Amino acid sequence: MTEKTPAVERRKVLRVIAGAVAAACGATALRLFGGSAKAAIRPADAPPPAIPGYDWTKHRWAFGVDATRCIGCLSCVAACKNENSVPRDTHHFRTWVERYAYLNGSDEPVVDSQSEPDALSTSPGNPTYPYRFPDRYGDQVVDKAFFVPKLCNHCSNPPCVQVCPVGATFRTKDGVVLIDQDYCIGCRYCVQACPYGARTFNEAMGVTDKCTWCYHRITKGLKPACVEVCPAGARVFGDLNDPQSDISVFLRENRVNVLKPEMGTHPNVYYVGIDRSVR
Q1: 146 forms bridges with which residues in the sheet?
Q2: What's the number of CA atoms in the CB half-sphere (13 Å) around residue 272?
Q3: Cα(224)–Cα(104) distance, rounded to whole angstroms?
Q4: Would you give the DSSP letter of residue 245?
């Protein structure tokens, strides 16, 4: 029998300790935050989702936003809610649109975002555009205004994955950050860790929720619902492994920015037409 070296033994011990710490964190979160009884830890090497005909090692998905094209119609928000069963109120979103308005004489914009309770209102009589921005500025002079679609940035270095105590949040080999809600215990650590405010908590289900780039669609060759319905072509999606995909062409033909590059998250949502006020 081969004698085990101290280094090998040390690695084995560290693996055991790491597993115990993760389990303890999950149990602690369960007690502190009133999560469900799910305390199992999702294996880091869990097999890929069973999607016939799809190989997640052959794709590298990314998203583009052209803010100069967005008209603030919010059809993307409605499509996302319909496609992904997101609560239809004005407080839960997988994707949303922010309005930036520079009022006369001000160097800083007023921002209408989903994080504010009165930033959006519903329009039940208009089934095509059921959400809208209210007229909040009255007779004030607006020097400049624009709209910025927001969503999960599907970071290459996602902090939400790092803080999840049970591995429910994970990054796939094709670059999409997902939540396995069978493992989510509702601790909301990931909600706090996301620097983009891209996660919400579903009180009815007791789990966190976020944009998945409509993973159930893109793995079947379809576009995300928000991209599909955008009447202005402000949203772009595709496979970076395909040089002729919409996103590859978008990145070649535009000078793009990402949100909060200083965070080191390496986002995979690329913007055109935003200024320094957009964070």
Answers
A1: 100
A2: 18
A3: 37
A4: S
Q: Tokens 């308005």 appear where?
A: 101
Q: Give, for 178, the enclosing helix (H) or strand (E).
A: strand 177-179
Task: Check: CB of residue 103 under 8 Å from CB of residue 110.
Answer: yes
- For 66-120, the pLDDT digits (tens) are 999 999 999 999 999 999 999 988 889 999 999 999 999 999 999 998 877 678 8
| Residue 255, number of CB atoms within 10 A of its CB | 6
pLDDT of amino acid 188:
97
- pTM of the prediction? 0.85
Instruction: Write out the two tokens for 74.
Output: 């919010």
Are 237 and 246 in contact by the 8 Å Cβ rule? The answer is: yes
Contacts of 31-40 with CB under 8 Å at 24 or more apart are 32/187, 33/185, 33/186, 33/187, 33/188, 34/186, 35/184, 35/185, 35/186, 35/187, 35/206, 36/185, 36/186, 36/206, 36/207, 38/166, 38/182, 38/183, 38/184, 38/185, 39/166, 39/185, 40/166, 40/183
